């Protein structure tokens, strides 16, 4: 009888150890999958941004199908590409679909700040916003230290689609169009990332917005 109890005890311990091992393996697999997905996201957006010439001009950027705001010449290019992205991914869209847009804003010194904004790059990923300000000379600004964004691409991949939607607001008080990832849930903050002047020349590049893709 005693031997039987020992055997049952040993079997119970073995089952517990097996369950613990399975849970540990499952946890590690999830962690690895999350790490691999994050690595893939970073690689995709960094590759896309790195493929853009560092001295790209507004005309060249427009020819690639990017939404461009040239604050030196006060011109906007490919506004309809921005409109397409909003239509495809906004919170109230009838059928939100995967899309991507590259936005290039030129400073008053003619230096490009580039945003690569994607929606549903992966099925379980909402928005991903990558910012490349490395083409801007951060030493010209009055910083006690040069912010990270001036020497490396910064990627925000934690923008869940169930809480965020893209909006473009025209604020005539400051005469600016404001591009924002707007929060629709408590506990999440709006992410405003780009502005452009209103009432300036909108250049028709003759590009079909539905044909624009950003393959590298």
Structural write-up:
The protein is α+β, with helices and mostly antiparallel strands and 216 residues long. Helix content is 31%, strand content 28%. The chain has 3 helices and 10 strands. It is elongated and about 95 Å long. The chain starts with a helix and ends in a 13-residue tail after the last strand.
Short description:
This protein is an alpha+beta fold and 216 residues long. It is built from three helices and ten strands, in the order ααββαββββββββ.
Largest sheet: 7 strands, mixed
User: Which consecutive residue ranges, at least 5 long each, have pLDDT under 50?
Assistant: none
Structural class: alpha+beta
Total count of helical runs of at least 4 residues: 3
Q: What is the 3D shape?
A: elongated
Count every beta strand, where a strand is a DSSP E run of 2 or more residues: 10
Strand order, sheet with most strands: 6-5-4-3-1-2-10
SSE string? HHEEHEEEEEEEE
Total of domains: 1
Average pLDDT, rounded to a whole number, is 84
- Cα radius of gyration in angstroms: 24 Å
Strand content: 25-35%
User: How far apart, in Å, are the first and last alpha carbons?
Assistant: 72 Å
Which percent range fits the helix content?
25-40%
List keywords for this structure.
about 30% helix; 7-stranded mixed beta sheet; 3-stranded antiparallel beta sheet; about 220 residues; alpha+beta; elongated; about 30% strand
Give the SSE map:
Elements: H1 2-50, H2 58-63, E1 67-70, E2 75-77, H3 79-89, E3 99-106, E4 112-119, E5 127-132, E6 154-159, E7 164-171, E8 176-183, E9 191-197, E10 201-203
